[in-house]
Amino acid sequence: MPDERIPGKLIGAIVAVGSLAFIGILTETVMTVLFPQLMREFNVDTATVQWITTVYLLVVAATMPLSSYLNRRFKHRTLFLAAVSLAVLGSLIMIVGHAFPVILTARVIQGMGSGVATPLMINIILEQSPKSKVGRLMGVGSLVITVAPAIGPTVGGAVSSILPWRAIFVIVIPIILLVSLPVGLKCVEQHRPTEEARLNSLQFVSIVLALCGLVMFLNQAGVAVSAAVSGGSDTVSAVFAVVSLVVGLGSLLFFGWSSKRSFSPLIRLGWLRDPMVLLHLIAYMLLPIVGIGFGYVITNVAQLSLGTSAFLSGALVLPGALIGAFFAPVGGMLYDRFGPVRPILGAFFAAICGPILLLVFSMRLTPVTLAGFYFIFGLGYSLGFSNIMTNALRNIAPQFMPDGNAVFNTCLQFGGAAGTALFSTILSVAQAGSGEEGSDAFRHATAIGGSWTFAMMIAIVSIAICCLIAAFRIGANRK
User: Fold this and answer.
1) Per-residue pLDDT for the chain (479 aa), expressed as one digit of tens each?
2) Do the beta carbons of residue 384 and residue 324 sit within 8 Å?
């Protein structure tokens, strides 16, 4: 295959749109460090303040399914300007807002901006990249998505330690207006014609209800299980979890049923009949459960079992997440050179060694071994993860790539939300009835909970690897 050059305007477009996606994801994780300050400032409890993150994730997840329609209906530059406007407006409201509902409104607006920018970046890469460079450029896109959550807590802690927390959003606005906006106006181009696509509002409402219902089910089921194990009242959470599950699954089934019968569906799903692509999608949804949930597990095990400070626990995640993320373009280069099988499977066979080592040493971990074993996982995960989506979308018809992009990005968001809910529940169950936080019994219980989570991680990654092996066998048989 010839060594095709990457156009300069494509690089500029990726920088412009990618910086918007980066800032959106960064502010998502920055806010988690600010919860204690926000609780004091707005006089809210822990359960209430967490809606700052939860509502953002729900809005991002709900906006992702629209990306296929938006990509077909509007020009890339129009979507880029919409994402810029939403990001700036949300940041301005965060700066001036002095009531908690106003802050939540700002997070909704910012979530919409991030939900537009991230799929737009992937669509630009898929549509405009030279075929011999798709893998490495998808790796760059993955770098944007994975580095931001890695450094978010560190950035939030550093800025809030010397400046008011609103300064984070004061810094963000000039970056958007002086870097992202002018570069995007110059470089974002349209390489495919738009279509007279119609927005199926009923399908949009059903997919939003499905995503919100399933995310709320995971959240409330975790609360109910933790309360039941600790001997508290779990009736309200249990009922809410069941109702959310029924609404979520019912809405999802309705969405699938109506999409098959619609002349202009919100997302075209016919490409999912290909078992090879479907297996890629299952793996792509399972792996973020571990990849994103790992950050929660490492920081909590470090603090509650090993007794480290909050700052040190965050620092333990940073090396593996940062260095591993910067290897994402390397994984894409390996994909471009060797094809999908060896780069993807080799990466995840290496990645699974991390949770295996963590399980083996779970009852005698130190901060150094905790960070080191997570580094092994992070490196392998970053080398292979973006290649799964790249390979799947290269096996569907070009006109369905926006639909595939929408589904894959939505599953990524859902997998991340599921990981945190799952692992927090496992740790809470292990800690129940073990005494006060900081006691030897509580630390031991947390270590046991950590071993359970590491075992669950091994099982999830193993299932994903089996899905990928089966997909590659189907591809080999076709050839």
Assistant:
1) 455 788 888 889 888 998 888 888 787 777 766 776 787 888 876 557 767 877 887 788 788 888 888 888 899 999 999 999 999 999 999 999 889 999 999 999 998 998 899 889 888 888 888 877 777 787 777 777 767 766 776 677 677 778 888 888 998 899 999 999 999 999 998 888 887 777 778 888 998 889 888 878 877 787 777 777 766 667 788 888 899 999 999 999 998 888 888 777 888 888 888 999 999 999 999 998 898 788 778 877 888 888 887 667 777 877 877 777 678 788 888 888 888 999 999 999 999 999 999 999 999 999 999 999 999 998 999 889 889 988 998 888 888 888 888 888 888 878 877 787 788 788 888 887 777 777 888 889 889 999 999 999 999 999 999 999 999 999 888 86
2) no
- The span from the CA of 391 to the CA of 394, in Å, is 5
Q: At what angle do helices 341-351 and 367-393 cross, to 10 degrees?
A: 160
**From residue 84, how far is each of 18, 78, 129 by CA, in Å?**
12, 10, 23
Q: Which residues contact 247 (CB under 8 A, 6 or more apart)?
A: 209, 210, 213
Which residues are CB-contacts of 327 (< 8 A; sequence separation ≥ 6)? 379, 382, 383
* Lookup: tokens for 2: 């010839």
Contacts of 390 (CB under 8 A, 6+ apart): 134, 135, 138, 332, 335, 340
Q: Are 428 and 298 in contact (CB under 8 A)?
A: no
The overall longest dimension of the chain from CA atoms, in Å, is: 65
CA distances from 230 to 223, 224, 388, 425 (A): 11, 10, 40, 12
How many Å apart are CA 25 and CA 53, to the nearest integer? 11
Distance CA 67, CA 409 (A): 9
Which residue type occupies 221? A
